[in-house]
Structures are given as C-alpha cells and as structure tokens.
Amino acid sequence: MARPELEVADIFREHGAAWRRANAGHVSLRQLKVMSAIERCRTAALGGHVARCGDCAHTVVAFNSCRNRHCPKCQGSAARKWLAEREAELLDVGYFHLVFTLPAPAADIAWQNKAVVYDLLFKAAAETTLTIAADARHLGARIGITAVLHTWGSAMTHHPHIHMIVPGGGLSPDGTRWIACRPRFFLSVRVLSSLFRRLFLTMLATAHAEGRLGFFGTLEKLANPRAFAAFVKRQRRAEWVVYAKAPFAGPKAVLAYLARYTHRIAISNRRLIHADAGGVTFTYKDYRVEGAGRFKTMTLATHEFIRRFLMHVLPKGFHRIRHYGLLANGNRAAAIATARELLAMAPREAKARTDQTAEPANAPQSVPCCCPRCGGRMVVMLIFAHSWAPDGHAPHANIVRLDTS
How many whole angstroms separate alpha carbon 117 and alpha carbon 205? Predict the structure, then answer.
C-alpha cells in the first residue's frame, strides 16, 4: 500500500515542538510519550533492518515501527494478528452490532476521569447485555461479547462509546442447547437503554462515594455529594439510547467490520488532506446527513488538531478491547467448542503452512517476505541500531526505504 502524502507524524515533527512549548505543564507524560513514538516511527531513530532478495539481490532498508497503539502507522499489523485469532472463534450464526454511548453530561465527567469512567462504561454495557440476554423473557441464554472502546467522534471530539459485537444466540443455562435469537432481532434496545442508564449511574455514584472521581473547572461543584446526587437524579430522567445496527451478513462480514473498528485511532493518515502553519484539513463524517453528502472536510488550527488527537490517548495499561460471557478469557476455548458442537459445525483443523514464502517467525515486522521486484524470498542481512542508517547516510540508488503503512 502506498504511503499517504501526509501523515500525523509529519504534523507532529513540524509543529510538535512548538505545541509542547505552548502547553508546557498541561501535557501528561503519557501524551508526550505518544508524540515521541509517532514522530520517531519508521525512522532511523528506532533502528531497522536490511533485507536482500536471494534471487535478484534487490535490497530493502526497513526502519522499525514504534508499535505504539495510538500510532496511525502501527495499527495495521496489530489488527491483522488480532483478527487471525478471532477468526477461529467465529460461529456459523448471525452477529449483531450494538453501540452504547455516554450522554454529554456523563462524557464530561469521563473526560476528567478517563481510567475510572471508561472502565465503568465497559462494565455497565457488558452487564446490561449479559443480564437482558440471560432473562428468559428476552433470550434466556448465556451469550458472548466482544466490546471495543472508542472515545472520539469523526471530528476527533470527545465522544466515548462502546461498539459491541455479539452472536445472535447463546448457550442454554445448563449448556446443553444453543438458543438462537430471532433472525433480525437480538434484544430490545428500549430495555437495554433503561438498564444501561441505571447500572452506569449506580456505578458512577459508588465511585463518587468512594472518592475515586475528581472534578475540576466547571465541574468542580460536583465534588459536593448533594450536588452530585442532584446531577444523577437529572440523568436518571434523561433518555439514554443504545443503538442496534442491522445484523451482519455472516462471519466474514463480522471480520471485515472488526478490521475497521478494533484497532482504529482518532484519525487515520488516509483522512488527512493538507497541513501548514495555518491549519490541518481532513475529511470527516457528518452523521446528521444521509448519503454521500455526509462526507465533508474540516480545517482545524494546527495546535487544536494536535490537542484533539492527544486527548484520546488512553491511560497506561487500559484495555480498549474486552471480551465477556462465553468469550471471556477464562472459559473461551471450552465455551466455543461447546457452541460449535451444538451448532453442528465441522471440527476445526489446524492449518498447515505450505507457503514456502511465508515470513519467518523472527523476521522484522516491516520487512516483506517476498521481493517486491521479482517475488523471491527476502532474507534479513543486517540489523542496525537506533540513530544509525546503512553507510551513515540516506540509502543509495539500489536501496529503497520500505513503508508498509
């Protein structure tokens, strides 16, 4: 895939230093580390490898990736590895897509308490879905859930929400039957919305009582228990909406969706159009508009663009992809095996690797397994340390820099 003409890394390298000076004392160490990683990604600063084709001697210099989960260039390979693992877990049933979104007042609290409130969002959304699905009045089954946190809207504004992928059915309470949902209906969104609101606000109130929330600026008054209780009361009367999309067309469609959503970040390099001292122009979706007209362009001041990008940096160690129910890590293999048996799916066979050009396990991530010129096998000839490049300068004529972004 060709390298985009403009990347987030280019914007950071050109304007990041000035942004850091202007915001000194107001930028977290985590955000600074993300900026540094993106700026250095696939440059000589991180070192790299030299690979040569065994047939035509074509040589490639590949600089190492930063592998930071917020880097636009490093998510492709991470997504492919994750999807390969998920593919083996898909069942021959319909899959549904639910979206749990925090209303703006709750999202404002999340902005100041990311680790705590994002975790509550996961827990409330998962418990809501598992509880309603287990209720005999709705489905009466134990289901599996894959949940992904996104914290942004298309214009990189703060918009925390959970994307949830669930198979259209689950195991009976005694584990002896597969209980399928109706073909195009999973669970009532009205019931889901009501329970989600109640669970989240209850969890939020508990976090407040335990002193786990901080309030600053315009939200400072919510530190007072009476003011916070009044806030919760108002939110209990507000409408919370859980969105249910049409079911996927099959397991392959689920994978295609997951490929787009699981490792997405606030903005991809493909959406960038132009950047200079005056601002950054990029494409975004206006979800209030239907059809092709929803795709629009926006220009933000460069410093505002950087601020919006960095406000979606997740707390250290925070897991943005989580599995629940039948897909929880502790019992996933056994639950999937039971489901496959009850659905009369063919036993899964281990795939033998017959491709002689397959990439060796210890090959660097950014070096191709096949020669881009003749298709021969590429062999790593040299590994060089950070801040050094072959010959100490830019590659010569028959060496090209590989960019697989």
Answer: 11
Phi, psi (rounded to 5 degrees) for 53: -75, 130
pTM summary value: 0.86
Same domain flag for 231 and 175: yes
Evaluated on CA atoms 216, 218, 223, 224, the torsion sign reads positive
Output the tens digit of pLDDT for each of the chain's 405 residues.
456 789 999 999 999 999 999 999 999 999 999 999 999 998 888 888 888 888 888 888 888 888 888 998 887 666 777 777 777 788 888 899 999 999 999 999 999 999 999 999 999 999 999 999 999 999 999 999 999 999 999 999 999 999 999 999 999 999 999 999 988 899 999 999 999 999 999 999 999 999 999 999 999 999 999 999 999 999 999 999 899 887 777 777 787 777 777 778 899 999 999 998 889 999 999 888 887 788 999 999 999 999 999 999 999 999 999 999 999 988 898 999 999 999 998 766 544 443 333 333 333 445 567 888 888 888 888 887 766 555 544 443 334 444 444
Q: How far apart are CA 162 and CA 179, in angstroms?
A: 25
Are 236 and 177 contained in the same domain? yes
Range of the domain at 238: 92-266+314-342
Cα gap 303→286, rounded to integer Å: 23
Q: Is residue 211 within 8 Å of 173, Cβ to Cβ?
A: no
Residue 334: inside a domain: yes
Q: DSSP secondary structure string, 172-234? A: -TTSS-EEE-BTTB-S-HHHHHHHHHHHHHHHHHHHHHTT-----GGGGGGGSHHHHHHHHHH
293: its two tokens: 């007209």
